[in-house]
Amino acid sequence: MNDEHWFFIREFLRNPLRTASIIPSSPKVARQMAAALPAEGEPVVVELGPGTGAFTTAIQRRLGGRGHHLAVELNDRFAALLRARFPSVDVAVSDAVHVRKLLDDRGVTCADAVISGLPHALFSQSLQHRLMGAVQDSLAPDGMFVAYAYVHAAWSPPARRFGRLLKTVFKEVAVGKVVWANLPPAFVYTARHVRTPPRPGIADANVSKS
């Protein structure tokens, strides 16, 4: 086990609900997460909850120096590691629900893609709605949202609720093949084309994180 994995484990033990997994996602899951990104142009890509950079690595390889990659990380220790590993990535220490403000602060109208490394299936209904409202407010009309989920938790009420929420917010939701080699096995959601206007009660939900 390398130093990055030990670092991830320490952060998991400090706050299991925030870190969610005891080890980073596998390179195969990371490649699936980044695969849908535009192969050309200068896309704006927002990454939520990058952790130690498992998905960041794949996103950077896909972009190949193009566009603007904003990584939003709540854990300041992870953020410091990301800045050291990825000097070209714009790392913001912030809660993902503030992504719209972070884009505004940078003079960015909208994101072409949002890649989420957050554990959506662990979140309350109110937090799921707040996060998806923030994503909805931040994406271009033809933008995409990519997230992962664990197979063993796919039938839990929060995970099923998140799947339904995706179909409410986006016109098209695809489910990728299971990556059995990941620990635990995982699959990827790719959602495209934000529904407008925003679904009532999502973007403007005034609820606290729980």
Report a brief summary of the structure:
With 210 residues, the protein is α/β, with parallel strands linked by helices. Helices cover 38% and strands 23% of the residues.
Name the features:
globular; alpha/beta; 7-stranded mixed β-sheet; 210 residues; single chain
What does this structure look like?
With 210 residues, the protein is α/β, with parallel strands linked by helices. Helices cover 38% and strands 23% of the residues. The protein has 8 helices and 7 strands. It has a 7-stranded mixed sheet, with helices on both faces. The N and C termini lie far apart (33 Å).
Any chance you could write out the topology, listing elements then pairs?
Layout: H1 3-14, H2 16-19, H3 27-35, E1 44-48, H4 54-63, E2 68-73, H5 76-85, E3 90-93, H6 99-105, E4 111-116, H7 125-138, E5 139-150, H8 157-169, E6 170-175, E7 186-194
Helix pairs in contact: 3-4, 7-8
